[in-house]
Amino acid sequence: MAQYHKIPQNVTTYQGRIIGKFTAKQFIFLAVGGIIAFLVFNTELPGNIKIPISIVSIGSSLIFAVLNYEGRSADMWIQSFINAVYATTQMRWKKRIKPIAFTMPGYHPHRQASGPRKRTTSELNRYLDLRGRANPKSDLSKEEQTIVDRIRKINTDQKKQSIANNTSTNGT
Question: 73: which strand partners?
Answer without folding.
Answer: 68
